[in-house]
UniProtKB/TrEMBL annotation:
The chain crosses the membrane at residues 12-33, 45-67, 74-96, 108-130. The keyword Plastid does not apply. Its main location: membrane. GO terms for cellular component: endoplasmic reticulum; Golgi apparatus; membrane. It comes from the Eukaryota. The keyword Transmembrane helix applies. This is Uncharacterized protein. GO terms for biological process: negative regulation of apoptotic signaling pathway. It comes from Trichostrongylus colubriformis. InterPro entries: Bax_inhibitor_1-related (IPR006214). Keywords: Membrane, Transmembrane, Transmembrane helix.
Length: 136
């Protein structure tokens, strides 16, 4: 699915997004491995932020369809990419262990898929921010 999405964008914008995503995800992973702060305590806050983002997404869809507001999707993509970056930091700390919540070693496949999906969602949101379509 990611290849289908990137096929509709220019090569330069896809490569720029890939570089930005790689730098952001790498720095988030290094930060969450080295920090003393326990981000796994913030699962309730993340749930509330996710619900707020979902409601904002519904408002963005309605405003884009009925009121022809185009920039609100850019705001949605920026907020979603920040939210998924925070999810990536939490998931890395869950995988590393030693915090309040942790994933058991038997669930390493689940943790790998979770981190992979976080990175893919970050890439999609950044591509919708920085990507220029072939149709433009």
């Amino acid at each position: 699915m990611t290849m289908m999405i990137t096929a509709h964008h220019n090569i330069v914008s896809v490569l720029l997004t890939l570089i930005i995503c790689t730098i952001c995800c790498g720095s988030i992973i290094v930060f969450s491995m080295q920090t003393k702060y326990d981000l796994t305590n913030m699962m309730g806050i993340m749930f509330i932020l996710s619900m707020c983002l979902m409601i904002f997404g519904l408002v963005a869809i309605i405003s884009a369809i009925f009121f022809k507001v185009k920039f609100i999707y850019m705001v949605y993509a920026a907020l979603a990419s920040l939210l998924f970056m925070f999810y990536l930091a939490i998931d890395v700390q869950l995988l590393m262990g030693g915090r309040k919540y942790e994933i058991s070693p038997e669930d390493h496949i689940f943790a790998a898929v979770q981190i992979f999906l976080d990175i893919v969602y970050i890439f999609w949101m950044l591509l919708s921010l920085f990507g220029s379509s072939n149709r433009d």
